[in-house]
Amino acid sequence: xxxxxxxxVASILDPEQLLVKREWQQLRPGVRISFLxxxxxxxxxxxxLHYAVGASVPPHVHADFEHILILHGSQHDxxxxxxxxxxxxxxxxxxxxxxxxxxxxxxxxxxxxxxFV
Length: 117
Description:
The protein is mainly beta and about 120 residues long. Helix content is about 10%, strand content about 50%. It is built from 2 helices and 10 strands; from the N terminus they run H-H-E-E-E-E-E-E-E-E-E-E. It has helices at about 10-15, 15-20; strands at about 25-30, 30-35, 45-50, 55-60, 65-75, 80-85, 85-90, 95-100, 105-110, 115. Strands 1, 2, 3, 5, 6, 7 and 9 form a 7-stranded antiparallel β-sheet that branches. Strand 1 and strand 2 (about 30-35) form a beta hairpin. It is globular and about 35 Å long.
């Protein structure tokens, strides 16, 4: 099955369009999620994450690989500040927390959901 997300390229280039044209759900306080796809058995998924200014995600462990592409703004993972264009790959078993002082929109692709500690 192939998903048609060809219209997303234009939206990604304009964060305001991305925020108004997609359906968003509250993930955590200050963090919203908009799925591109997800599997009912907590398997592979992809989504946009929108961090409000100052929003954070508590410490968590990656059960499998996760890829994050920073599309707009920046986020800090406890070791470094990652800005627009950064591609982050978290290995299985890695642990960190995320904070976005300036706000951020990221594309996240993961094999399995994270486990909060």
